[in-house]
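[Meeting: bench + compute handoff]

Bench side (C.D.) handed over the final construct sequence. Compute side (W.E.) agreed to return the predicted structure before the next meeting so the bench team could plan truncations. Sequence as handed over:
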Amino acid sequence: MRAHQRAGGDVPGPQRALLNIESNIKDLLTPFQSGWYYKREMGGSFSIKSVLPALFPDDPALNYHNLEGVHNGSEAMDLFPQIQFMEPAEKETARRNLLKYCELDTLAMVKVWEKLKATMV
């Protein structure tokens, strides 16, 4: 069955584009979990919180400890549902901290991808 077809027939345009994107998504956990790329500094963990400092130990912009308020997924999950009960100033600070955390998570994936790509050249 072609990528843009499903049991009910052809998939409309926007859905076809999304299915095409989906078929090109790669899980960045795979090279680490499979042992294709490993550094002792990861300490046996393949989470981004272990991989990122192992690959970029001297880059403060890639250090979750330098963030304010939200440093890991647990803190983000705890904070998010509480935002609705906060005063406006506190809400804005929480929102900004969550966005900074998400921004670093996204940048981390890009940096890891670039590092993996560079090692394959």
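W.E. noted at the follow-up: The chain has two domains: 1-27, 37-119. C.D. will use this when planning the next construct.
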